[in-house]
Amino acid sequence: MANEFVVPAIVAVTLVTVGIGFYGLRLARTTSDFLVASRAISPTWNAAAIGGEYLSAASFLGIAGLVLKYGVDVLWYPVGFAAGYLALLLFVAAPLRRSGAFTLPDFCELRLGSRRLRILATAFVIFIGWLYLVPQLQGAGLTLATVAGSPYPVGALLVAAVVTANVALGGMRAITFVQAFQYWLKLTALAVPVIFLALQWQADGRPAVTPPDGPTFRVATTVVVEHRATLTLPDGDVREVRPGDELTFAAGDPVPDVSGVATDAGDWLLPSAAGDDDRGLFATYSLILATFLGTMGLPHVLVRFYTNPDGAAARRTTLVVLALVGVFYLLPTLYGVLGRIYTPQLLLSGQTDAVVVLLPGAALGEGLVGRLLAALVAAGAFAAFLSTSSGLLTSVAGVISTDVLGRGSVRGFRLATVIAGGVPTVLALHVSGLDVSQVVGLAFAVAASSFCPLLVLGIWWRGLTDVGATAGVMVGGGAAIGAVLVTVVGPPLSGWPATLTAQPAAWTVPLAFTVMVAVSMATRRRAPADVAATMLRLHTPETVRL
Amino acid sequence: MAKQLPDVGSGGAVPPPRRARIVLADITRQDSRAERTRAELAQQTQVGEALVRGLVRAQLALALRLSLVVAIGLGGLPWLFAIAPSLGRTTVAGVNLPWLLLGVASFPFLIGVGWAYVRLAERNEQDFTDLVQRPER
Description:
The complex is a heterodimer of chains A (546) and B (137). Chain A has one domain: Sodium/glucose cotransporter. The longest helix of chain A has 52 residues, at 152-203. Chain A has 23 helices and 5 strands. In chain A, helix 3 (43-54) crosses helix 9 (152-203), helix 8 (115-148) crosses helix 9 (152-203) and helix 8 runs antiparallel to helix 19. Chain A has helices spanning 6-27, 31-36, 43-54, 57-70, 76-91, 93-99, 104-112, 115-148, 152-203, 265-269, 278-294, 299-305, 311-328, 330-342, 345-349, 355-364, 368-404, 410-430, 436-460, 466-489, 495-502, 505-522, 531-539, and strands spanning 221-224, 229-232, 238-241, 246-249, 257-258. In chain A, strands 3-2-5 form a 3-stranded antiparallel sheet, with no helix packed on it. Chain A has a two-stranded antiparallel ribbon with strand order 1-4. By secondary structure, chain B is mainly α. Chain B has a domain at 56-137. Helix content of chain B is 69%, strand content 3%. A two-stranded antiparallel sheet of chain B has the order 1-2. In chain B, strand 1 (91-92) and strand 2 form a beta hairpin. In chain B, helix 2 packs across helix 3. Chain B starts with 23 loop residues before the first helix and ends with a helix. At the A-B interface, helix 5, helix 11, helix 13 and helix 23 of A face helix 2, helix 3, helix 4, helix 5 and helix 6 of B. Chain A: It is a multi-pass membrane protein. Chain A: Belongs to the sodium:solute symporter (SSF) (TC 2.A.21) family. Chain A: It is found in: Cell membrane. Chain A: Keywords: Cell membrane, Membrane, Symport, Transmembrane, Transmembrane helix, Transport.
């Protein structure tokens, strides 16, 4: 049942991306145009570009999949992804723009004058960037496999190649136009189908999302299992399934309980309660902390702020971004909820990330409208992979070209782009078992435990020293990276150790702040002599001409 | 008019004065007190230092106050749902309250806080600018 509109839609998105990239290239005449878009982009354009860059595979596909699987507790993901921009607005946006730093390593050197800290920050930017790039490329591979039946490496390689070429040739100016276009495409690709889905739901007699007897199959369904799981059938039988198993259900059959999935209506519908689920509550708060504070430490987010003309514009841009992503995040939840009714088989197959792509076809049938909307959603998903990967690649290539290759030239930037794009592509081709949303969540945790304390204390506290900052980033960020490695490649854990490593932010963020403050106070004499001048530069409004 | 002016190069006629560019901002800048305050800021004198410290403190206090609003307004929710499970079962228009609060209401709330911050932070900066430009007031 291949949908003949999907491939043309994906090709169109890719061509438009490349096309706008080359249009931008024609406009980019100087190195300044190329790297920072000559710092002359209006707040609205810039905000749409930041929003377009930010809404990744995790936002477009992952949130709906998590809502389908786990229910109300994961609504903290969209809330936190949006709230991260509020934290950025409150503590970082205007001073960072006034500092004139283009990247996080720039900020370190400018504020603390330490080469060693600059190298450490560069390493963290590259680690976070690659940790975030791998799941984007994987999402592309899996989506193309789901909607067009292509082998997994095709989608990953396609996105990697398009993005690397576009960033290397078009640079930052082109990327701004591409990203802004992709924000609106992503919003449309979720908003238009949701109207049709809601009408269909009305026409079907408003079936209950959580029927008293648990979810049921609406039509006869054959499920191919993708992940190992334990099923509990309605008659009480327990059955182990492994990848490749086929299960057949008739219309009206109840969906069996799946291990690790909130199949039960109560678990799905209601938040975790105290007493019986303290670990759930800890994980929720840890997630809140990681997403609220992690956004400001993501390398591709910060690099954008430099394209604002001044600090006040940076602030207004951030507010518009907050509004744009807030509007977007209303939508994925609806897909997850409707997925409970129309695509319960994903709970069994384990491919919950595919719910956004499959829902239009499942709910509206294989008619013309259903196929067109499915193609629109697939195009939006590709916009998500392309835009976030472009932003990440631009920022990782930026630090590689200035800090590793040591050249600020356009040619150096192009070479850096190829390096920055090549490594995660190889990783994405070799590790295909990682969970998109989980890895993105870990990238937020690492950013929140390393760059967030560095930025917040660097901007607001005169007492920060280079030794304190280095120690804080090493201990806090190092602990978060350790947790990431244990979660991704370590042995399977259970109980508290599993919770503490899967959602580390609640202990690594306070740890980073504490170490940074304590060591800075112990090395008070190393505070930079020009701190007063730096503070003046960071906080003085542009209306006061010095 | 211009073509009726005498030829400057010939004879001993006094050359016309160079054309002076007058920009409104330059006139304001001639205010000597404001000039001095700006110089104090730039030269890190104690007065300038105190002015900047005041601005930084005001902006930080504003940011912390608004984060407290968010910490209580949003951060209190998981705890509230945990200690009062009946709240989770309350439905409004057929939807459970936690879904409405998190899935819908939280976004306008965040945008509202952000909007208030931008306004208040710009007001702080305006106060600072007024202080620097017109120190006598």
